[in-house]
Amino acid sequence: MSRAQESRDRERLAAEVHLAPRPAKGSDLSVCLAYANTYPVGMANLGFQAIYGILVRAGVQVERAFLPDEPPYERLRSLETGRPLSSFAVVAFSISFETDYVHLLDVLAGAGLPLYRDQRTGYDPLIVVGGPATFLNPEPIAEFVDLFLIGEGEEMVPEWLDALRAARRGGGRRAELLSASAAIEGAYLPGERGGFANVDAAAPRVRRRYVARLDDAPTRSQILAPDAVFGDMFLVEASRGCEWGCRFCAAGFMYRPVRHRSARSLRDDVLGTALEHRKTVGLVGAEMASQPGIAALCREVAERGGRASPSSLKADLIGPELAAALGGNATRSVTVAPEAGSERMRRVINKNLTEDEILRAAELLAAGGVSALKLYSMIGLPTETDHDVLAIADLAAKIRARLARGVGRITLSINPFVPKPWTPLQWEPMLDLKTLRERAQLLRRAVQRIPGASLDVESPREAYWQTLLSRGDRRVAPLLVKVHESGGAFWPVVQEAVRAGGMDGCPSPDEFVHRRYEPDEWLPWDFIDHHVDKRYLLVEWRKALLERETPPCDVATCHSCSAC
Q1: What is each CA distance from 542 to 19, 342, 350, 380, in whole angstroms?
Q2: How high is the mean pLDDT of the chain?
Q3: pLDDT tens-digit profile of 399-433?
Q4: pLDDT mean over 420-447
Q5: Half-sphere exposure (Cβ direction) of 203: Cα atoms closer than 13 Å
Q6: CATH assignment of the domain containing 118
Q7: pLDDT tens digit string along 237-247?
Q8: Confidence (pLDDT) at 198
Q9: Is the pLDDT reported for residue 347 higher than 90?
Q10: 3-class SS letters over 341-386
Q11: Using CA atoms, how far apart are residues 135 and 254, in angstroms rounded to an integer?
């Protein structure tokens, strides 16, 4: 690690404000909580901060580790004391995004730890991984990990720590810690399952753990870090999951049943804690317009001189009160996610949203004082045509025509469709890159004719890489190692593997990315029990192809998907 990086880390530590108690010293259990990316990215991740708070409150001797801001990734030490990662009993990672899988290897190698699980000795720390990406499909990194914790940390981490401590008191090292972990529901020990697919229909499934009531486990910023990506915000979780059942959305299925913080609990956190430390409060949830009491909360934040910044809002749920509250608290830009331009495509993905509802929401937001709109949409969805792509620009043009003087800027943020495990579209392939580029260019030409509109399209190559890591199995491991060895340049490695029809036991990446999976096929992630019946996902897949919508979840009466 360079001297410049060490100096930067000291400055970051000095600027932090700790809201949780300081970690224990001399504890019977030491954990290095690592984030497989840089400090600014990691400290903006609310899940990472939540796990840190859990470890601190459990009396664990915990320190953090991150990748340096730039390569080389070598001589990695803990942030707080510069301690070697190899000296901790456990090195635990929280991974939210599949594209950080290669950074897991960067951290291990930079810390001098063996990459592969079977190369570690009894004196190496236990490598533990959790986080949303691994809830969906941990198999691409299964060869590098000793233990996965499948589920929400508030529910299972304290129980797991108790098991580790009992093993440590008995003098246990790696093998004993693993054995103690195996007894915890939601623990997945990849070394106990063989074969590249690592699935067996007859084997016991790993049941995802979840918190039944979010009020019992309020999640908020634990450390205020000015150098984080959202360094000016205090983050507060408002909900987990989403009742709307959009067929492409992993969060809407992996976090079922949907859970909301109560209006009172959320208000206490926002007004009683968050505004004491930051003027801007980031309200975190998959869809925030459904949150009970959201309009009143945003208005009250504004009255106290603050600004509430909710994540994406469903257009048809934006009423006059919420629009006025957002404009009144100096929120100048609001994100709305139509996801598709045409009514037909929104039926395919089960968006339950009409064009008239989108236009009405835009008018309300402009009238309330919001001056910029960000519209999220996708290209490459199943059954999509050029007409559906151009409909994205048509929708933006209609918004511009209605709000000629109200909204100053419309930004279209476009992502290629990535099929995700545990969604109704998990069987669908990703569209080929040539067609994606052509459709992006088609859309770009159309958007250029709209005054005050801009277009931001995610790279199809990035989407390909994400799809490979989302739908891959253990055979992807050698390819990940090659990308790590190449300094993260994934595309040349992918191209070489495609040209050769495979690489080091990994089939052509196209087999994972561009192949439509069979309905009766046993998928690499099927051994995880997400409380959602696979037959329900199949029905929703068929309804997508028939352009039929499903009403939102009613957790009080509906049992169709089995999550409740």
Answers
A1: 48, 19, 12, 18
A2: 92
A3: 988 775 555 789 999 999 999 999 999 999 999 99
A4: 97
A5: 17
A6: 3.40.50
A7: 999 999 899 99
A8: 47
A9: yes
A10: CCHHHHHHCCCCCCHHHHHHHHHHHHHHCCCEEEEEEEECCCCCCH
A11: 8
One domain for residues 144 and 277: no
Q: Stretch 542-551: mean pLDDT, rounded? A: 95
Whether cis (ω within 30° of 0) applies to the bond prior to 257 is yes
| Residue for token pair 């009396």 | 59
- Indicate the DSSP class of residue 273: I
Cβ atoms 471, 427 nearer than 8 A? no
Residues 229 and 106 in one domain: no
- Nearest residue to 239 via CA among 226, 221, 255, 223: 255
Count of domains forming the chain: 2
Q: Are residues 190 and 242 in the same domain?
A: no
Same domain as 227, residue 195: no
Phi, psi of 495 (to 5 degrees): -60, -40
Where residue 74 falls among pLDDT bands split at 50, 70, 90?
Answer: confident
138 neighbors 196 (Cβ within 8 angstroms): no
Please indicate, yes or no, if residue 412 is contained in any of the structural domains. yes
Q: What is the mean pLDDT of residues 317-323?
A: 90
The pLDDT of residue 170 is above 80: no
Tell me, yes or no, whether 507 lies in a domain.
Answer: no
Give yes or no for residue 200 having a pLDDT over 60.
no
Half-sphere exposure (CA, 13 Å, Cβ side) for 138?
33
The answer to whether the beta carbons of residues 526 and 558 sit under 8 Å apart is no
**Predicted confidence (pLDDT) per residue in 470-488, tens digit:** 999 999 999 999 999 999 9
Is the pLDDT confidence value at 524 over 60? Answer: yes
Q: What is the pLDDT of residue 250?
A: 93
Q: What are the phi and psi torsion angles at 146 (to 5°)?
A: -80, -35
Range of the domain at 158: 3-207
Same domain, yes or no, for 200 and 222?
no
Find where tokens 């440590």 sit: 168
Contacts of 388 (CB under 8 A, 6+ apart): 340, 341, 342, 344, 345, 381
Measured distance CA(447)–CA(425) in Å, rounded: 28
Encode pLDDT of 249-262 as tens digits.
999 999 988 999 99
With contact defined as beta carbons under 8 Å apart, do 48 and 24 qualify? no
Q: Return the sign of the alpha-carbon dihedral for residues 237, 62, 114, 150.
A: negative
Rounded-to-integer distance, Cα 155 and Cα 151, Å? 8
Length of the chain: 564
Nearest CA to 450 out of 414, 410, 402, 415 is that of 410
* Structural domain includes residue 503: no
The answer to whether 141 and 101 are in contact (CB under 8 A) is yes
Between helices 433-447 and 460-471, what is the axis angle to 10°?
Answer: 140
